[in-house]
Amino acid sequence: MRQLTLPELREAVEWALADADVVLGTYRYPGGQETPALHVGDPPEGVTVRGLEILIPATPEPTVISTFAGAITIDHYPVRAVSHDGRTLTPVWQALATAFRGTPAPQVLQATDRYPDQMLVTITP
Predict the structure, then answer these.
(1) Strands across the sheet with 48-50, in order?
(2) CB 43 within 8 Å of CB 49
């Protein structure tokens, strides 16, 4: 079974959120350009964000399974959803769990004085 490439995974996450009517926030670049707040890796320095931000790591977390035929590597991506506007992240979890079967329960990180509410959803494409 072929796993999705990183660009395919980004597109699949974007489609899953759109299909569930989850509205992405907005990145604003220093020159004034705005894009949806969905990024692979960390956004560039100087970018500000409003609303829901989705971050997909550029490097997956691999799991190696030993079989009689040899080792099999399965990549997992801990996708981070950040609520910069205080909205609930439950719809994000529901959209990703629907699109990516076998998605485990998310890890919820409660807001602090320095960081907004966040959720890690581990996806195996």
Answers:
(1) 34-36, 26-28, 48-50
(2) yes
The DSSP call for residue 70 is E
Q: How many angstroms separate the CA atoms of 18 and 95, rounded?
A: 9
Give CA 61 to chain center in angstroms.
13
Per-residue pLDDT reduced to its tens digit, 22-31:
999 999 999 9
- Closest alpha carbon to 17 in 101, 94, 74: 94
Report the distance separating Cα 101 and Cα 110, nearest Å: 25
> Parallel, antiparallel, or unpaired: how do β-strands 107-109 and 61-67 relate?
unpaired
* Residue spans of beta strands (DSSP E) within the chain: 26-28, 34-36, 38-40, 48-50, 52-56, 61-67, 70-83, 107-109, 117-123
Q: How far apart are the first and last CA of the chain?
A: 10
Q: What are 68-118's pLDDT values in tens digits?
A: 888 888 889 999 999 999 999 999 999 999 999 888 999 999 888 888 999
Tell me the whole-structure pTM to 2 decimals. 0.90
